[in-house]
Design a protein that fits this description.
The chain is an alpha+beta fold. The chain has a domain of about 70 residues: 2,3-Dihydroxybiphenyl 1,2-Dioxygenase, domain 1, CATH 3.10.180. Helix content is about 20%, strand content about 15%. The chain contains two helices and three strands; from the N terminus they run αβαββ. It has a three-stranded mixed sheet, with no helix packed on it. Strand 2 and strand 3 form a beta hairpin. The longest helix is centred in the first third of the chain and has 12 residues. The radius of gyration is 15 Å and the shape is globular.
Length: about 120
Amino acid sequence: MTSDVTGIGGLFFRSRDPEARAAWYQEHLGISAGHTGIWQQDAGMTVFAPFPADSDYFAADQQFMLNLRVADIEQLAARLESEGIPVERRDEWNTEEYGTFARIHDPEGLAIELWQRPAESD
């Protein structure tokens, strides 16, 4: 079956302080956020996956978790930590098949999963 949908056109979510939250995403992740921000991203795969309501993969009080593809997870994690942003890593999150993962949280507590795909085999 082919799809008429070609990709995600936006992610919209409520915020107690939209301007400050948008500035945080710009400063720490380089994402142009906000109603006037357009984030031009690299083409690549996107996983669109509902999780069971009782999943413990991310916090039960969050309806979704943002997953961002990154080029160099170690470099980004080191920079974020130097900026005072805690980075959580767990060996069980990483696999040869899917790659390397780490987590941070935005100023309002939203989990953000950083994901570096495994190196392409030759």
